[in-house]
Specification:
Membrane topology: Multi-pass membrane protein
Organism: Streptomyces plicatus
Protein name: SulP family inorganic anion transporter
Shape: elongated
Low-confidence stretches: none
Radius of gyration: 28 Å
Order of helices and strands: HHHEHHHHHHHHHHHEHHHHHHEEHEHE
Distance between the termini: 69 Å
Subcellular location: Membrane
Keywords: Membrane, Transmembrane, Transmembrane helix
Structural class: alpha/beta
Helix content: 55-70%
Largest sheet: 4 strands, mixed
Number of helices: 22
């Protein structure tokens, strides 16, 4: 025992943490799979791979990976459009792209993505997830699009009020959410059991004790659900829409994982994340998940923070959590059949709510309205259109905002009534500010000489230089003294 302690000095802390993470991950793995429209066991497969494959690889030592609520909406749409068989191809391609990006050291560039775009993405996912799971909580079928889910909620509520079974199912889901919210107010001794597990356990016990007529998880068996993609599934790669889905999976899974890594690094004082290696670890995990036909994985902040809070010191805790998931899936799969679906819907409603950054929106609007606008537009676009295009809209808006701010320009006109009119340009003169510059210069008196001082410019792009030269030529053509131009002090043109 002493030799083991010497070789693994943190084994006790990691063992305890692994049990906590397992108990947190178990209901989430199952819930995400069911909400994604795939067999519950596939969520466990992804959790197992996240522990045993990604958990062993270098990158972020305390971050835990598995199926994430943030990809639920995208996975459901992909399965609905292309079928379950194509999911393996999508996840496999995502993993291979992540491996390539990590090898090319592109991982750090994901840190350059605007935080407002990421928060808007998560908010949009949260809204669609909540709306969809409210239908599931009532035992009703949800519409396909995000807009239809939201618009249809009043009608769904009316249908639920007229059905005893729907009200029973909805009450069970609401009770699950209530338990999770109130669980954090209990003494710390009680909180050693994760709130999600306690909520599912209580909902399962209530369902069994009172014989409630609610839907439960369908169980197929771990080996039965593992279906590597066949040749027909790879033929779907000729579909442009599927290629766009792969890009969306790659972008969102990578960004979510690396942003999670940055958050986890703030929770502990251990080794910092190596972003390129972490991206490759995520890629390796998704490659294996794709081969097995399972759900995609990302690093999950809920499990990762639970891992750190439970005292984990090394990657051994996340590897062991994968072992516990494997043992559960192999030895106790029938337990899943006892879990009521409304309880899982309640867990995901709670998870979706936490994806929406309510607390940061008001301060962000007060201090950085442009960033707040990007957040809201990204979220609304995801709900109104789809995940991929919504994120692209957010990224495009972020780039436009950055370009506009980078082209900050000030034009000062000094006219002393006699002598030349002086025009001073300071800042960054780009084509984005060209209309305003020309409008002000063309308003200057045509019969007066002009001195155009560009020495205060940090940047003068080709479009602006050409336009200023053309204006100066036009202004001087009416017999006025040629415009005197003072060139920029820097060579950045």
């Amino acid at each position: 025992m002493t030799s083991i302690s010497r070789k693994f000095p943190h084994l006790r802390q990691d063992f305890t943490a692994s049990l906590v993470v397992f108990l947190v991950a178990l209901p989430l793995c199952v819930g995400v799979a069911v909400a994604s429209g795939v067999p519950a066991e596939l969520g466990l497969v992804t959790g197992i791979v996240g522990g045993l494959v990604t958990g062993l690889l270098p990158g972020s030592s305390l971050q835990v990976s598995g199926p994430a609520a943030g990809l639920t909406v995208l996975v459901f749409g992909a399965v609905d459009s292309y079928g379950l068989a194509a999911l393996g191809v999508i996840v496999l391609a995502t993993g291979l792209i992540q491996l390539a990006m990590g090898a090319l050291k592109l991982g750090r560039w994901f840190r350059a993505i605007s935080l407002s775009v990421v928060e808007g993405m998560l908010a949009g996912i949260g809204l669609v997830l909540i709306a969809g799971q409210l239908y599931s909580a009532a035992g009703l079928e949800a519409p396909s699009s995000g807009v239809d889910k939201l618009i249809g909620l009043p009608g769904a509520a009316a249908d639920a009020l007229g059905s005893t079974e729907a009200l029973t199912s909805l009450a069970l889901g609401a009770g699950t959410v209530a338990v999770m919210v109130l669980w954090k107010r209990l003494p710390k001794a009680a909180q050693t059991v994760p709130g999600a597990l306690a909520a599912v356990g209580l909902a399962t016990a209530v369902t069994a004790a009172f014989g409630l007529s609610v839907a439960t998880v369908e169980v197929s068996g771990l080996l039965d659900v593992i279906q590597p993609p066949g040749a027909d599934a790879f033929g779907e790669l000729a579909n442009v829409g599927l290629l766009g889905t792969i890009v969306a999976f790659t972008l969102i899974a990578s960004a979510e994982s690396l942003f999670s890594a940055a958050a986890v690094d703030r929770l502990h004082k251990g080794p910092r994340t190596e972003y390129n290696k972490e991206l490759m670890a995520q890629g390796a995990g998704n490659t294996v998940c794709g081969v097995l036909g399972a759900l995609p994985m990302t690093a999950v902040i809920v499990r990762s923070s639970a891992n750190v809070s439970a005292g984990a010191r090394t990657k051994a805790s996340r590897v062991m959590h994968g072992v516990w998931l494997l043992l559960f899936a192999a030895l106790l799969p029938s337990v899943l059949a006892l879990i009521p679906l409304p309880a899982l819907a309640g867990i995901l409603v709670h998870a979706g709510w936490k994806l929406i950054p309510f607390r940061s929106i008001v301060p962000l609007w007060r201090d950085h309205r442009g960033e707040a606008l990007i957040l809201v537009v990204t979220a609304v676009s995801i709900v109104a259109v789809n995940m991929f295009e919504g994120v692209l809209i957010g990224l495009a808006l972020s780039v436009v905002k950055t370009a506009w701010e980078a082209s900050h320009l000030k034009l000062e006109i000094v006219d002393k009534g006699a002598g030349p009119v002086q025009a001073h340009l300071t800042g960054n003169a780009t084509f984005l500010r060209l209309p305003k510059i020309l409008e002000s210069l063309e308003a200057l008196p045509q019969d007066r000489p002009v001195e155009l001082d560009l020495s205060g410019l940090h940047h003068l792009d080709h479009a602006c230089r050409t336009a200023l030269e053309n204006w100066a030529e036009r202004h001087s053509s009416a017999g006025t003294d040629p415009v005197k131009v003072t060139e920029p002090a820097t060579a950045a043109v």
